[in-house]
Amino acid sequence: MSDVITIPVPKKELVFDIGGEKYTLSLSDKSRAAINNRYQQIEAQEVANNQHTSKLQSMLTQELGDIPDDATDLQVKEARFRITNKYEKKFEVASEKAEKIAMANYLPFLDLLFGEGSGQKLYHLVGENIVAINKIIGLVMVELNKANDVTDYMDQYLKSVAALKQAAEQVGEDDGSYQ
C-alpha cells in the first residue's frame, strides 16, 4: 500500500476586504505579469522624482553651507531667506509632480488590480486622499508578493518530505526492517 502525498494547491486569487467591500485580485500568470510590469513603471517614475528631490536637497544644503563665515547676522539671514525661497519653489514643483504621477497612475493601477472603476471607487472611499491610495496599493503588493513566493511552498514540501522520511525510518526501527 502506498501513502498518498498531499500537495497544497496555491491560491488562484486574493480577496481583499477594503472598506467593507470585497476586491478580488487574480494570481494568473498573465495578470501577475501585467501587474508587476505596471507597478515597476510607476516605481521608476517615482524614483526619478525622488532622486530629483534629493538632488535639490543636496543643492540647498550646499548653497546654505557656502554662506561666508564672516558675514554679518543680517547678511546670513538675507542669504538664507533668498536661498530657501529659491528652493522652496523648486520643491513645490517636485511635490506637484509627485502628486501628478500618483493621480495619473494609482487609480488606473487599482483598475488593473481589481477591475474597471475600482480606482475611483476606492479614491472616494478614502476621502480623495492619494496617500491613502498609495498605502492600499502598498499593502496589496505585499500580499501579492507573499502569494507569489514559491520558496514557501518549497520549504513546506521539503518539511513534508523530511517528516515522511522520518516517519518511515521510525516505522523501520519499530519493526526491525532497517537493521
List the helices and strands and how they pair.
Elements: E1 13-18, E2 21-26, H1 29-65, H2 73-114, H3 118-125, H4 130-147, H5 150-175
Antiparallel strand pairs: 1-2
Helix pairs in contact: 1-2, 2-3, 2-4
Protein architecture, described:
The chain has 179 residues and is mostly helical. The chain is 73% helix and 7% strand. The protein contains 5 helices and 2 strands. A two-stranded antiparallel ribbon has the order 1-2. Strand 1 and strand 2 form a beta hairpin. Helix 1 packs antiparallel against helix 2 and helix 2 crosses helix 4. The chain is elongated, with a radius of gyration of 28 Å. The protein starts with 12 loop residues before the first strand and ends with a helix. The mean pLDDT is 87.
Brief descriptors of the model:
mainly alpha, two-stranded antiparallel sheet, single chain, 179 residues
Distance between the ends: 22 Å
Task: Identify low-pLDDT runs.
Answer: none
What value does the average pLDDT take?
A: 87
Number of helices: 5
The order of strands across the largest sheet is 1-2
What's the short story on this structure?
The protein is mainly alpha-helical and 179 residues long. Helix content is 73%, strand content 7%.
